[in-house]
Amino acid sequence: MNSHKFTIRYLGYRTLPDGGRELDFSFAMGGAQATTVTIDAPIAFFRGPDQIAIQEAAGICYETLRFRLEASEESPPSRFDLTAADVAQHRRSHKGPAGRR
């Protein structure tokens, strides 16, 4: 596990022509200069029975980036796609005592 301190900031998003989202974050480790990372959330995540709400996309992507920073000694790529596994991990970590509806 990564023992470095880091800060993450959500910078904003862009709506893609198909309705998906590109979410931008900056992160800095130690006192280093901030690096920008873009996470692509394809439209498929916003449709269907297991869809995520547009409002929760930034939180899911933030936690995905945080998890990747904590789990690796290397910096994440400057751009990567949100995956079904990322969404599932977010949902597992946020189940309340009463479970999900």
What does this structure look like?
This protein is of the alpha+beta class and 101 residues long. It has one domain (6-89). It has 2 helices and 4 strands; from the N terminus they run βββαβα. It has a 4-stranded mixed sheet with strand order 1-2-3-4, with helices on one face. The chain is globular. The model has no long low-confidence stretch (mean pLDDT 87).
Major β-sheet, in short? 4 strands, mixed
Rg over CA atoms, rounded to whole Å, is: 14 Å
Count of DSSP helices? 2
- Ends: how far apart? 33 Å
Q: What's the β-strand tally?
A: 4
Give the neighbour order of strands across the main sheet.
1-2-3-4
Strand content: 25-35%
The helix/strand class is alpha+beta
Chain oligomer state: single chain
| Element-level helix/strand string | EEEHEH
Query: How many structural domains can be distinguished in the coordinates?
Result: 1
Shape annotation: globular
Fraction of residues in H or I helices: 25-40%
Mean pLDDT: 87
Runs in which pLDDT lies below 50 for 5 or more consecutive residues are: none
